Amino acid sequence: MSKTFKIGIIGLGQIGNYLYQELNLKKKDILIKTGKKIKIIGISAKNRNKKRKYKINKNIFYSNPLKIINLKPDLIFEVIGQPDGISKKIVETALKNKIHVITPNKALIAKHGNKLGKVAEINNVNLEFEASVAGGIPILKTIKEGLATNKITKVSGVLNGTTNYILSEMENSNLNFKEVLTKAQKLGYAEPGNPKLDLNGYDALAKVRILSSLSFNSKISLNKCLMEGIENIDLKDIKISNQLGMRIKLLGLTELINGKLFERVHPCLVNKKSYIGNVNGVMNAIILKGKPVGVNILQGEGAGPEATSSSLLSDLLSILKGGIKKPFGISYSKQKKLRSYNLNNYSNSLYLRFEVKDVPGVMSKITDKLAKFNISIKRLIQTPSQKSKKATIVMITHSTVELNIQRCLKMINKDKYILKSPTLIRIFN
Amino acid sequence: MSKTFKIGIIGLGQIGNYLYQELNLKKKDILIKTGKKIKIIGISAKNRNKKRKYKINKNIFYSNPLKIINLKPDLIFEVIGQPDGISKKIVETALKNKIHVITPNKALIAKHGNKLGKVAEINNVNLEFEASVAGGIPILKTIKEGLATNKITKVSGVLNGTTNYILSEMENSNLNFKEVLTKAQKLGYAEPGNPKLDLNGYDALAKVRILSSLSFNSKISLNKCLMEGIENIDLKDIKISNQLGMRIKLLGLTELINGKLFERVHPCLVNKKSYIGNVNGVMNAIILKGKPVGVNILQGEGAGPEATSSSLLSDLLSILKGGIKKPFGISYSKQKKLRSYNLNNYSNSLYLRFEVKDVPGVMSKITDKLAKFNISIKRLIQTPSQKSKKATIVMITHSTVELNIQRCLKMINKDKYILKSPTLIRIFN
Asked: What ipTM, to 2 d.p.?
């Protein structure tokens, strides 16, 4: 029998606590599968005495997480989840002490992954983060291993369960954004305090950054890129999309355009009959395009302690089976540095909604400006409000260059007959 | 630089030939990802001079594949595809000579996997077969690694592209089985000579056997089990299903029922609006249920040289990165031997189609017998043929025990008013 493999868990929130329980329950399973005996030798959290779902062994509790490093564990789980601060300090210190690290912390990896990956590689230890993207879907291993040697050209998907739940629920229940958000918070699908990072696309963008790096064998990009959330999606947009046979989804996308990296997160109109149009509720889904494999789709639960723990444990097994893996599939020294694609040049069909005063000549004023910027209309729906002297105008454009629409909307927005900043939703193709 | 990793390819049909080309094209990529230089040192096929899409180096061609073993390669690809014979001989001999083996040969693994896995383990070499199930979908790695430590309870899916294409095309084109089969053969979606092993469910069942073993950590079962193909699916069944809001799919399923293994392949009626109801054409899809991960779905191209090659190369990379893996995830000595679930006890809702003489009393004769066997009807459609004195009766039953329906149909089948053996399609739930 080989010596016991010692584990520390730092962070005992919902995920850390569930993981703690799973590790204890699955010791025997893990022994059978890997021949290794594991033991949790240290745990740490802010609050020792907080009420937790699964009882912890307080004899191995340390208020200062860095003390766990001193116990010389073979591996630590970092499940605090900060993009910097103590999370970064713990991970970096562990790696430098040749301790393997597993973390679901997407914010940390998206921000400091380049550096931490290098530290891991130099110290010849593993840094694994399967759970950081799409919870229980083993998407990172699929890219690094299952589809290794494929040339991946595009990755897109529903990467945030909170926003997907809210959009689905708005459609199903006919409630507006704020009402559904409150409901989501009650159900635990959205953070009770500050759900902003889910809603504004930040969470999905961190995942996109990680996916890009693995898919294109490149450094994680820290460049500015298109990030729009769902805060401005109105129930009206959901209803009109529905009439058009479409549904709104917050998508994360990354692709190479002429060798340049194009990463983005924004609401998209997708066909209701398409695969992605039917990924509803808290589900996550990812569509990969690669050569020679073609299109691969993966779907599963994107969050929650169960799904996250599935990925954390799969990382653990991979490490227990032995061998040091490069955190990003290839050596940091071989990762490309990609230049960013200029969003201004991006051309796409668009959904535009204008809220206007219902007076003569409004439509011609809008269409005149659109024409000026070479924007042509494919479809138009005008709905007057019967009570007020207002109207809603929705247009679907033909393929339109981003720079043009931004300039045009800026100009239209100045006009007095415009009652609200126009809504723009890109159409997924 | 480490020494060159020597590779042999045995079998140069569509897949072997494409693989040969890919290995040559991706040498540099593989070097970057693994630090290993690969070289093809021997190739073998029945016919040296056959016209092939990608030109082969005839200087390394051997008519006798066993001679390649004598060259002491580090690894061979077995891409002949027989369930026994030369395929088995090559794989076994290679493993015994401590040569790694990669194969897409599902028939071989389903039949001899238990033995070959043991030989690989004893000789401390790798035997990998990702491409044997669902082509380009990395489902085996997903089960062995990505979802390791999950308790998988059920796996179901569209595992055969040929039959899925035929069923989709019958629906789309309104052509009957034979006409569509001819079309599929022309397009290369069905084997021109003998497509039987695809059509009768044998191919899908081999995949089910492999999936069971990995999912349940058990020996590959060689027990008899339910295997029905699509040869008896009539255009009429497709049309009626359509009216019922359903679609016919040939599904492979495996699950544990009270600790007993229940493996089967048969046509299923699935809801048109469900996920699996929309996996059309040559696509493959797999639905995994596991704890704690929940439901995971994977979809991709199930066949063809490109998809298959993607999986063959992913196996190669896994081996080049080092470490010996157990072919079935755990040691052969730890694999359980599962007893089979008794099909007779299986209870499910059924679609039944009777072709009868259109004479008074027929319906009551049928329903009497159904009642005798405790089979109750949920829905009934009777369509008389206007020209002939025939009628088609379709019934959807409530949950019905398999033994009962088999006995009942046997009895009904004896009656003179029955013009054809009744059609039975199980409803997927």
From this structure: 0.89
Residues of chain B neighbouring A30 (CB-CB closer than 8 A): 149
Which residues of chain B does A299 touch, with a Cβ-Cβ cutoff of 8 Å? 275, 295-299
Q: Tell me how close the Cα of B4 comes to any Cα of chain A, in angstroms.
A: 19
Q: Give the separation between CA B310 and CA A142, rounded to whole angstroms.
A: 12
CA distances from A302 to A277, A284, A342 (A): 17, 5, 30
Rounded Cα gap, residues A253 and A228, in angstroms: 12
Query: pLDDT for A37-96, tens place per residue?
Result: 999 999 999 999 999 999 999 999 999 999 999 999 999 999 999 999 999 999 999 999
Cβ contact (<8 Å) for A322 and B323?
A: yes
Whether A249 and A158 have beta carbons less than 8 Å apart is answered as: yes
Q: Are A413 and A368 in contact (CB under 8 A)?
A: no
Q: How far is B283 from chain A (nearest CA, A)?
A: 10
Tell me the per-residue pLDDT of B2-26, one tens digit each, with 9 for 90 and over. Answer: 689 999 999 999 999 999 999 999 9
Binary contact (A138, B146; C-beta < 8 A)? yes
* B7 vs B111: CA distance, rounded Å: 25
The catalytic position among B111, B141, B144, B207 is B207
On the 0-12 / 13-18 / 19+ scale of CB atoms within 10 A, B185 is: middle
Catalytically active residues of A, by annotation: 207
C-alpha–C-alpha distance, residues B39 and B45, integer Å:
18
Tokens of B49: 């001079």
Contact A297 B294 (CB under 8 A): no
User: Which residues of chain B have a CB within 8 Å of the CB of A318?
Assistant: 145, 148
Say which of A149, A311, A317 has its CB closest to residue B314.
A149
Rounded CA gap, A201 and A375, in Å? 27
* Secondary structure of residue A227 in the 3-state scheme: strand
Distance between CA atoms of residues A54 and A50, nearest Å: 11
Question: Among partner residues A310, A317, A322, which is closest to B292 by beta-carbon distance?
Answer: A310
What is the four-CA torsion angle of A289, A290, A292, A294, rounded to 10 degrees?
Answer: -10
User: Using an 8 Å Cβ cutoff, are B248 and B394 in contact?
Assistant: no
Closest CA to B108 of B96, B117, B98: B117
Report CB contact under 8 Å: B314, A138. no
Q: What is the mean pLDDT of residues B210-228?
A: 96
Question: CA-to-CA distance for A425 and A181, rounded, in angstroms?
Answer: 20
Domains identified in chain A and CATH numbers: 5-103 (3.40.50.720), 148-301 (3.30.360.10), 344-427 (3.30.70.260)
Tell me which residue of B343, B144, B311, B352 sits closest to B224, measured CA to CA: B343
- For residue A2, what pLDDT is reported? 63
Q: Are the beta carbons of B79 and B68 closer than 8 angstroms?
A: no
How far lies A417's CA from each of A369, A371, A386, A421, in Å? 14, 18, 17, 11
What is the distance in angstroms between the Cα of A386 and the nearest Cα belonging to chain B?
37
Distances (CA, A) of A334 to A114, A142, A319, A326, B4: 12, 20, 23, 11, 20
Contact A296 B33 (CB under 8 A): no
**For residues A83 and B274, what is the distance between their CA atoms, to the nearest angstrom?**
39
* CA distances to A230, A233, A383 from A174, in Å: 16, 13, 19
- Name the residue type at position A365: K
Distance (Å, rounded) from C-alpha B246 to C-alpha B269?
A: 6
Which residue's structure tokens are 């005996």? Answer: A37
Shortest Cα distance, chain B CAs vs residue A330, angstroms? 5
- Which tokens in the block code for residue B303? 């066949």
